[in-house]
Design brief:
Length: 136
C-alpha cells in the first residue's frame, strides 16, 4: 500500500485518504487523529478497569479474613500431604516393614495426589485474591 489507509466519509460513500504515508500506514494528519483516539480509548479502558476493581474490592472486602483462614488451612493440609510418610529415612531401604510399605503407597495414591493438586489450585487462587485485595 502506497498511500494513507485512513477511511474518509461514510461506509457506503467514502474513500481511502491516499496521501503520502509517514508512520504506521497513515499520513501526519490521520496519524494524529488515530493517536488521540487511542489515548482516549486507553483512558476510558483504564477508568473502567479501576471502577471494576473498586466494585470487586467492595464486594469481597468482608471475605478477606475467611480467605486468610482458608489459605492457612490449605497450606497446613498441603504440608501434611506432601511430607515424607516415614520420618526415619533408614527404615525406607531394602526389605521394609509392611507398615512402611503401606504408608508409602497411601502417600502416592491417586486420591492423595489429586487432593495435593486441588490444594495447589486453591492456594494459588486464594493468594491471588488476597494480593488483589491488598493492592488497593
Amino acid at each position: 500500500m502506497t498511500g494513507c489507509r485512513y477511511w474518509i466519509g461514510s461506509d457506503t460513500k467514502g474513500h481511502v485518504c491516499g496521501a503520502a504515508v509517514d508512520r504506521f500506514g497513515l499520513c501526519d494528519k490521520h496519524f494524529d487523529i488515530e493517536l488521540e483516539r487511542t489515548k482516549k480509548r486507553l483512558a476510558r479502558e483504564k477508568a473502567q478497569h479501576e471502577a471494576a476493581e473498586a466494585r470487586w474490592r467492595e464486594r469481597n472486602a468482608r471475605k478477606l479474613p475467611a480467605w486468610r483462614v482458608q489459605l492457612e488451612a490449605a497450606e497446613a493440609e498441603y504440608a501434611y500431604r506432601t511430607a515424607s510418610p516415614v520420618a526415619d529415612r533408614a527404615a525406607v531401604g531394602g526389605s521394609m516393614h509392611g507398615s512402611v510399605v503401606r504408608a508409602q503407597r497411601s502417600h502416592l495414591s491417586d486420591t492423595n495426589v489429586a487432593r495435593v493438586a486441588e490444594l495447589d489450585r486453591i492456594m494459588e487462587r486464594l493468594r491471588a485474591d488476597i494480593e488483589r485485595m491488598e493492592r488497593s
